[in-house]
Design brief:
Number of strands: 7
Order of helices and strands: HEEEEHEHEHEHH
Strand content: 15-25%
Number of helices: 6
Structural class: alpha/beta
Largest sheet: 7 strands, mixed
Oligomer: single chain
Strand order of the largest sheet: 1-7-4-3-2-5-6
Distance between the termini: 42 Å
Helix content: 25-40%
């Protein structure tokens, strides 16, 4: 009801212990796009994931599963959003990749996450699954808030599951999206960081995407 009434600030303050300034929120519920959980009939041109990895300790591993269609629309039917350590989050990522037949994955890279990505690749090999996996280092000459602000219009064009169709994990992911603010300090920004990375993957897709029948 807080989301439907565009009052996520009250929800975060009263129930999550994370008061935020209403004026500072970058993403408001009424500005986002939603769908009822039924994906378009067309075969997606690409299914991909953008992963913001973490090792627990209060930080969340965040990864939206993105279905991109020929008309440019992007639907997000599933997410990973968990603050467990890598023994918890790496198998979660692999399960989502296999479940959705993900074709491409990008990990945000830094000195501490190289091994994290390698372990995910190992788990996939053990299951006989091959996925195109890349890493990309976030630019250090642009503040994270400004990078997210730059991609906010495209994030608002994504289709998210509507209220009532979400898992508990998906709901926490969306609460984190609505709590992100440009001014002041964000306790967690993992969900919006992963969505910004998904936009980056779309922007940097080269060539023409063609749809092919999957033989697995």
């Amino acid at each position: 009801s807080f989301e439907r009434n565009n009052d996520m600030a009250s929800w975060l303050a009263q129930y999550m212990g994370e008061p935020i300034e209403r004026a500072g929120a970058l993403f408001e519920p009424q500005d986002m796009r939603y769908y009822n959980g039924i994906l378009p009939d067309d075969i997606p041109a690409r299914v991909f994931m953008a992963v913001d990895p973490a090792f627990g300790g209060g930080d969340f591993t965040a990864a939206p599963v993105c279905y991109q269609y020929d008309d440019g629309s992007v639907y997000i039917p599933d997410v990973v959003y968990d603050d467990g350590d890598k023994r918890v989050t790496q198998p979660l990522l692999v399960e989502k990749m296999v479940k959705h037949s993900v074709q491409a994955v990008q990990f945000e890279a830094n000195k501490s996450t190289t091994g994290y990505k390698d372990d995910v690749e190992r788990l996939l090999r053990e299951r006989g699954v091959r996925i195109h996996i890349t890493t990309k280092t976030a630019p250090n000459n642009v503040a994270k808030e400004m990078r997210i602000y730059d991609k906010a219009p495209e994030i608002r064009e994504f289709y998210f599951l509507e209220d009532g169709k979400r898992s508990k994990e998906y709901s926490r992911f969306m609460q984190n999206v609505f709590s992100f603010k440009l001014t002041g300090k964000n306790k967690h920004d993992d969900s919006v960081d992963s969505l910004a990375q998904a936009v980056d993957m779309i922007r940097n897709t080269n060539g023409i995407i063609t749809v092919a029948k999957r033989w697995f």
